[in-house]
## 1
Amino acid sequence: MIKRRSLLLGGAVAATGAASATGAGVLLLSASPSSAAAPAPTTSGATTATGIDPGSIAKYVLKMPVLPHQRPRRVSFTTDYYRMTMAEAYKEVIPGFQTKVNTFNGSFPGPVIDAWSGRRVVIEQTNKLDVPTSVHLHGAHVPSSSDGGPMDLIAPGGGTKTYTYPNEQTHANLWFHDHAHHIESETVYRGLTGTYILRDQVEARLGLPSGKYDIPISVRDARFDADGQLHFEMDDFFNRQVVLANGKAWPYFEVAARKYRFRIYNTANLRSFQFALGDGSPFTLIGTDGGLLAEPYVTTSVLLSPGERADIVVDFSRYPVGTELELRNVITQAPGTPPDVNQVLQFRVTRTERDHSVVPAKLRTLPALRPATVERSFSLLMDESSQEPAWAYINGKEYDPDRIDTTIDYGTTEIWTVTNDNKIAPHNFHIHLVMFRVLERGGVPVTEGAETGLKDTVFLRAGETVKLQATFTGYRGVYLYHCHLFDHASMGMMAQMQVV
């Protein structure tokens, strides 16, 4: 079993002191780009950064691409059929270099699958990489045979597996990624992620920005060697100082002076982001992991830990043509963190256009909370000493694929109290199969903002406790729950539940 000690603090010693997702208390930094080069901090557990200095990379010279929407190879009355291939390719990720990356169908990050609630999607995945893979559709309500478990592997060099997604859930902002145990940290870092947008008529009838004004954005960080290649090692959070949006380092994106819908995905291994506009102006949060909130929420920032999603509407009609506006990461950073990680991308208002889209005062009716009959407690803990190797646990145990940690009766509604028992390291908590509701954070009921909707991943600062409620229906079988900071999961912070 691969073990690394953690500075692991990964993702985010930075996130430990971050302000809430409502934007209260957030320091909004200058909207002008930083051109100063900053030396990479050296920390125990991470090597001294070498290779391309992030401060030397020109910002806002590459255009952020709109991710390609994958077309099905065949459709029937009930089902859309796709074929996808995992393989290496070369892409211009930073200006002037061709970087070798992992791709789905040649796209970095992977393409967008457009799905509809009640209509099946079947994807035949072929693995042409030199390591085994397992494709997990994050946030999906699927049979365990198609969940992409860490030991349910596709052989390298051309192995194939077919995944069936019934889509028997309401609209949601889903994504897919490798989940092969001990390998996923590196394969995801090198690019094995993709977007899966599940739509339904409830969402479609609202009149929200759509079509070319509905843009998924995958945000993550990276580190590059002197040849412009991705450099991967565990515990390397502080040296991953290049921020990528849709596979480009600090890109720009041209917009019209009208409303846009941005579905933002944090696909980083470890880093949390708190997204805000560079001028501190508000935007409208309309949804999160499991789709739309009950009603829009106006805020100045939103916090996403790895695996979480935010669905926002930005109205650029308040800006004159010619405006350049940054999307920034305003999370409280650890001492010595360079300014580059505070910049994400630049919006350029280049034209005017008519806008008939709206953001209704009521978005959806969320499912009623059922009476809970079972309560459970979970402790997340990892070694924070200097010893090698480091270990990570849920309820004092490392992941064991031959052990069932929690047995759940089908149809049961349960309340889970999850505590981060570390003093420094942040974690988050992802449950496969189900969406959940966040009831409390730190003993305080959740009544507004991002955590009032349907969630599948929740952030926990050091010492923090959250209370979640979920109903386990649809499918029986074995599923995971784990920390979604990939290095922590690789070190053992995963467990298995069996729905019987």
## 2
Amino acid sequence: MFTVFWTTLFFFWWVSTTYKVESALGRPSCYNGFCITLNEEMITAKAGLCVVIPCSFTTADGFTPKSIVWLKCEPQKRRCSDIDIIFHINRYKVPSEFLGRVLLLDPDVSQGNCSIMINDLTTSDSGSYQLRVNGFYHGTADGVTFPSRTILSVKDLNLRPSLMIPPLTEGQQATLTCTAPGLCSGSPPNITWMWRGKIEEDYIITGSTTALKTQDLTAVTQRHSSTLTFKPSAKHHNTNVTCKVSFTGDITTEETVSLNVSLLAKILKGSGCVQHAEVLSCVCISEGFPSPTITWPLLKNHTEYSVINIVSNNTVNSILSLRNPGNISVECFSSNENWEVKENLRVYRELSEEAYHEKHCVSGFGALPWVIAGVSLSVHVFCMIYIWHLWNTRKKTNLTEDQTYMSLRKRDTSAEYDVIVQRPQ
């Protein structure tokens, strides 16, 4: 009874397992007791990534498998030959372009798992793949090449990396994550971050960059990611960040997203007030994202006023006009969902026309004594020069006419005389 129970249980397990394999790979193809199960449909993959060719086999009684050989040739070729080897236990039989790129998922051949992974794919990897199993048949070295083949088609890479961008706030540290497409265990891709500013020039983003490998699905597949940690600022708002992934063979792909940085509300230079007579005019300029709102706390005690708000991009201009303000201080209050700020604005007071004229008249009378003193000094200097000139003229009357003429001519052309005469002008 016990034997019948376990026999029945094993039968149902075998049927269930066989059904799953057939559903995933197709039906086994058998010949003289040797069976192989391959994917019935064409396998498609992308250049730069990796692909798994699933495979399982069973052998006839008396055959002991020892090693696996994979071959690749053109689909129209009837049978792949030894020159088409891409995987072999003897590395010297493998061409350099496949060496190390083709991996056997299960090195224990006795388990009947002949699945392989091909890394760093190129479009030249497209073709027909055929399996050969080497071993011993009743103690004699032998091998079998299965006639069934699977077709692999490698296309140009059109997949993009995935970007995870958390909410960004000005001045608060944030971490961006870029994940390369595909699940591969071959050569890790090179992941770089680029920031494009408003002047359309690319720069490497400064920050902490870390490359990650995440195990996924099986022990032979990995997901490659890169994280960037930085502090966003106003210059990053409405700009683009690009994650570029470079695979072996100059195969690249990238993804670009626009950054929206929540900017803290701030009051800009140029805000202030002017009071003229009984009217107070103020302007408060604030910037932030989302656009901030501006309020005037002093208005709760006044009724005669008007407020005009002008919004342009992320900047708000609030213009206040208030009658009969009295002797008060003016405070501007700006806030958005990220921050709030307030500032006491400086008030410039303009004089009335009467006060203006009075001020300038007083200034004129104050300067009058200095004007009189200047004129008096000029007159005295002129008189002294004139007397000095007469004295010199009389002193030289005993000279000859030519000498007198020359002496007078010399004095007329003297630079010193010119300066003394011209100074009162």
## 3
Amino acid sequence: MNRTPSSEYTGDESIELKSCSVDNIYNKKEPEAERRIRLLKQLCLVLICVLGQVLVGITHTWPSPAISSLSHNNASLVGTEITLTTTQIDMTGSLLMVGSLLGSPMAGWLITYVGRRRSLQVSVLPCLTGWLLLALAPNVAVLLTARMIQGFGYSIASLSASTIIMEISDVEVRGMMLALTTIGIVVGGLYTVGFGYILPWYYLSLTCALLPLVLLLGTFFLPYSPSYLLLRGQKLQAIQVLRRLRGPYSDVNAEVTKLEAMNSGTSRNWRNLLKPKILKRLIVVIMLFAFQNFCGTYVFIVHTSRILQAAGVVMDPDLGTVIVGVARIVGCIANIYLVDKIGRKLCLVISHAGNAVTLVMLGAYVYVAEKASNDDNILNRFHWVPLVCMLVIMLALNIGVHPVPHMMAVEYFPTYVRGQAASVVYMSGMLFTFMVLQLYSYMKETLTQAGLYWFYAFISVLAVLFTLAFVKETKGKVAG
């Protein structure tokens, strides 16, 4: 499974290909017991890749418990004191995106020319370095630099992991497998807020540093991508990998032929992105990432505790963050079930629509609360509304808004341009996330808190219309 992809095959390939297909029983249905075992093995490989998305989750969510910890005790592990201004607090999220902007082009190059599995392995170094620097940071400058290094590393890990999952999964379960990446992000977030609830921020960082090492060990069990092997002209090795992934009842040669036809006569260069068909797909997916960010997704993820406090939720903000994280998991589980049942497009529509309605309600509550007096008994009876709205928002966002654009980033493009296209899409997404996180405090002051929520709701309404008009379904389709 882990043969070096650069090794060359010598011999009569036609004889070997024939021997590979002798045992196929294409006219028979795969026994259900064998299918379950095969998909379980495939799931184990996918879960290794999902560790790459767990890195995304722990990195994104770190500011929520860490800033809370710093506000109570700003001592560092090396004995200095660290005090963050409001702008610097915003930068703990936004500088992550700056690093990602630098890492995304590198990810595209690595995936295309070095390979998917090796790209995932390379991502471990900056991720681990970032966490160690964060844990040992003596001042604000080192802390913020560490966040930028983390962004560089996790962007490579995220894109590599998603690409591997898409290319090794069976078509009929590919959506479910890709949906697990969002579960990984949420689990990473819960890991962070869980340990952050009991540990100071620097010990939390050391705990998070363990996960890149676990990912590195897991990558040695991953196969090389069959699509990548085909692009390198290693057809026999691609067939052998697919045979292990698809089982003896699948017509692997037909799948290989289809992949070759989709990528015939093409080269792996960036000019392919300018082809009208590819450019149109790029614009569509970039818009999905724009809607994903400007409807408030990452603001709610990164600044959960701040938003709960600002909305007047009467509970420990860290505990509230954990409760909201559980709602994210429920949404992800719903997405796993729905994405291959009703499709990616309808998941997006339902998700954005639910987000828009709930944000209008949350904005209305906050608006009334800001105008009401402190002894307003009627409003006090509805103190539960902000937390419930947050739960519904996170549930809705994780049904489609959060996971589906990441699926489209790899599903929407053929193999020969997938690495470059996905890197451009991710880079655009990171730029949008940087803008949203860095401008969060400014937008809240300018629009008011209620006005900001209504702005996010308006973006979700636009997203529904755009999705219905321009997004094409990828459910059940082979992406070459």
